[in-house]
C-alpha cells in the first residue's frame, strides 16, 4: 500500500486534531489519581471530546471497539478495556491511549500516568520509555529511514536493560486511523522506507521490564506481558517536514526539542 503524502490543507486539519487531543490530556491530568475507575476516565474523555471540543472519539466503533480509549495499567501492554472494576491505586502506572477525529482527520496519542507515589523501578521504566519515544522522534527527518527510528528506540531501551515489544507497532494516520507505513520500534539503521516530507505516522513504543513476549486475553483486546512484569508506552502523531519532524500531538508540558 502506498504511503500518502499529505497536502498543506490536509495538514491544517491534522494539526487542529492534534491540538484538540492535547487538550484532552490537559483535562485528564486533573483527574488521574487514586480512586477513579478506568470507566470513569472513559466517560470523562468521551464527554469532553463530544461536548467541549465538538469532535469525534475515533476509537469508538473502530473494529467494533465499544469505548473511546484504551486504559492499560501495570502489566497490560496495550489495548486495555476500561472497566468499573478497575480502580486506580497509588503505585499504579497506566497508559491512556486516545484518538480524536475532527473535520475527517485523526490524531492518536497516549500518555503513561504514575498514580501517587510509585516504585523507583516503575518510575525508571516509565521515564526510559518516554526517552525511547523521543529517541525515535528525533530520528525522523527527510531522507532518514524507518529502520533508523526503530533502531534508536531499541538501542536506548535495551541499553537500559529492557525489551521492546515486537507484536504491535506504530502506523500511518490521516483520514483513516491505520494507514501505511507500519512503524516498527526495533530494527537496523539505514534500512526500511525512506522518509519524505508530508508523511504522517505514529510512534508508540511498548517497553517491557521483563521479556518482550505478550499474551492476548480472552476479551480479544487486552494484551499483557507473558511474564506479568510491568510494561510502559507513550505515543505521538508525527509529521515529516522539509527540515525534520513536527509533533502534531505535542502537549503543553512537553518542552523537548524535535
Tell me what the structure shows.
This protein is α+β, with helices and mostly antiparallel strands. It has helices at residues 8-28, 38-52, 120-137, 146-159, and strands at 56-57, 69-73, 76-78, 93-102, 105-114, 163-164, 170-172, 179-183, 200-203, 206-208, 214-216, 223-225, 231-233, 236-240, 245-247. Helix 1 packs across helix 2 (38-52) and helix 3 runs antiparallel to helix 4 (146-159). The mean pLDDT is 97. Helix content is 26%, strand content 25%. It contains four helices and 15 strands. The radius of gyration is 17 Å and the shape is globular. Strands 1, 2, 4 and 5 form a four-stranded antiparallel beta sheet that branches. It has a three-stranded antiparallel beta sheet with strand order 3-12-11, with no helix packed on it. A three-stranded antiparallel beta sheet has the order 6-10-13, covered by helices on one side. Strand 11 and strand 12 (223-225) form a beta hairpin. The longest helix has 21 residues, at 8-28.
